[in-house]
Amino acid sequence: MLIVSRVTNYRSVDYSTIKNFVFNVTKDIRMTDIPTLKQKLEQQYINLAFDPATALSDLRLNSFTKKYIKNILARITGFIEEQTGVASNYGNYMNTQTKNPFEIEHIITDHYEWFTAEYSDQDDFRRWRNSIGALLLLHKSINASLNDAKYDYKLKKYCSNEGNIYTETLGDLAYQNNPKFKKFIADNNLGFKSYTSFGKNEITERIAVLVDLVKLVWNDDLFQ
After folding, report:
1. What CA–CA distance (Å, rounded) separates 85 from 35?
2. Are 137 and 74 in contact (CB under 8 A)?
3. CA–CA separation, 16 vs 165, rounded Å?
4. What's the Cα-to-Cα distance from 106 to each of 80, 113, 157, rounded to whole Å?
5. Pair 88, 81: CB distance under 8 Å
6. What distance in Å separates the CA atoms of residue 134 and residue 154, rounded to the nearest whole number?
7. Secondary structure (DSSP) of 116-169
8. Which residue of 60, 167, 200, 201 could cross-link 158, Cys pair, CB 3.0 to 4.6 Å?
9. Where are the domains of the chain?
10. How far, CA to CA in Å, does 52 sit from each of 76, 85, 125, 222?
11. Each residue of 188-197: pLDDT tens digit?
């Protein structure tokens, strides 16, 4: 919770920054009983003032955020899997030692000239393309094969056995003959929907879904 709340607001999480915080929390909770421990940890969570809606709307892929965005996407995808009766693949999503690891995939292909009607300039295009709402996790080999592909072709891959449950939510099949996933959406009032094209409006909607998912994964329920 501490790491996610900081990195989504572009705040440092290096050792020198974190050590004093963790040390002080450790001293504060040492030798406390369970009810007091819950109370103290909940207060620490409150003190973080973590607002996913604000943080994720401005969270974009760069050299600082890359590994943290990958972790967020992995946790989110694994969480959906768990909630829909599928074994979480989180460990595989984060494992970099395999021959074909998972990588961050841009839904929007890196060809500004294809999208000049929607994006005012290359900087505008780059900001939207790197938004967390426009990112997925795919195997390295699949990611490379989609390098110059357009959305309609990518969507077929996302919704095949080469994707995962989060990539599949961009297409229609995820919502067909999938009662556990549909129940998960309904129970948590999530705005998942399929898309035949993908641009600014779709990215904005995907960010809203991510905000709700982040609230489900990182919250203070454990301290109640």
Report:
1. 32
2. yes
3. 37
4. 20, 16, 13
5. yes
6. 13
7. TTT-SSHHHHHHHHTBGGGEEEEEHHHHHHTTT--HHHHHHHHTSTTS-HHHHT
8. 167
9. 2-50, 59-223
10. 13, 26, 23, 18
11. 999 999 999 9
